[in-house]
Amino acid sequence: DIQMTQSPSTLSASVGDRVTITCRASQSISSWLAWYQQKPGKGPKLLIYKASSLESGVPSRFSGSGSGTEFTLTISSLQPDDFATYYCQQYNSYSTFGQGTKVEVK
Amino acid sequence: QVQLVESGGGLVKPGGSLRLSCAASGFTFSDYYMSWIRQAPGKALEWVSYINSDSSHTHYADSVEGRFTISRDNAKNLLYLQMRSLRAEDTAVYYCARVLYYGSSRYYFDNWGQGTLVSVSS
Questions:
Q1: Which of B97, B5, B16 is nearest to A97 (CA)?
Q2: Nearest to A27 by CA among A90, A89, A69, A88
Q3: Do residues B45 and B34 make contact, with C-beta atoms less than 8 angstroms apart?
Q4: Are A79 and A15 in contact (CB under 8 A)?
Q5: A32, A42, A46: residue with CB nearest B110
Q6: In this structure, what is the dihedral angle of CA atoms A19, B97, A52, A91, given to the nearest 10 degrees?
């Protein structure tokens, strides 16, 4: 099974900050990676697919990059609505999620 | 717009059974693979199962293989998850999700429901 490791587990930031979350795969997954945002009591929301493709309707301040085993999700200027937990998911072989990164108010 | 609404969760004793349902609307249900994903309290997401559009193919996580059965009714736009021999470790919020499938077991989830809580406890 492919394991996904996110870092950091928790990130404290302020509105307007540039935020970067990293996701590492235990083996190469090419660009078969998605990012999701989850708020308390809600189902996850797709942000990015194929490592860097922005889902329709998602603000352009979100971007994804990487290939192989290392990937990043960047929020260029953190907005109040962005405080949430973020998950990566590999889909090179079935599906595995990272353990999540909680973005909290600094 | 796409809407997925889960139901059927609740409290069940270890060894018991439960059937979850997911009502889909806002898209042509029969065109899409569908999946169940769960999240134990305070934990990460865990993919559980998927089913293809005509029910001819299903796949399960090792943790539920042989105990859970995924099915669908395309005439009623409903997705199901029959859960048997439930264990404490099955306690989680269960989400249904629409699948975008790229072949060769490559898929991700573009729309999710709000989830239904399953608690397994004596």
A1: B97
A2: A69
A3: no
A4: yes
A5: A46
A6: 110
Report yes or no: A10 and A99 within 8 Å, Cβ to Cβ: no
Give yes or no for a contact between A35 and A64, defined as CB atoms under 8 angstroms apart. yes
Q: Is A24 in contact with A5 (CB distance < 8 Å)?
A: yes
Interface test with A, best of B34, B109, B111 (most A CBs within 10 A): B109
Q: What is the Cα–Cα distance from B22 to B115, expressed in whole angstroms?
A: 9
Pairing of strands B78-83, B18-25: antiparallel
Q: CA–CA separation, A71 vs A67, rounded Å? A: 6
pLDDT single digits (tens) B51-96: 999 999 999 999 999 999 999 999 999 999 999 999 999 999 999 9
Tokens read off for A49? 């697919």
Interchain proximity A95–B113, CB inside 8 Å: no
Sign (positive or negative) of CA dihedral A104, B38, B61, B34: negative
Contact A9, A93 (CB under 8 A): no
Q: Are B90 and A71 within 8 A, CB to CB?
A: no
**Average per-residue pLDDT in chain B?**
96
The secondary structure of residue A50, as a DSSP letter, is: T
- Helix (H/G/I), strand (E/B), else coil: A90: strand
Contacts of A99 in chain B (CB under 8 A): 44
Can you tell me the distance from the alpha carbon of B70 to that of B27, in angstroms, rounded to the nearest whole number? 20
Phi, psi of B80 (to 5 degrees): -130, 155
| Residue B61: predicted pLDDT | 95
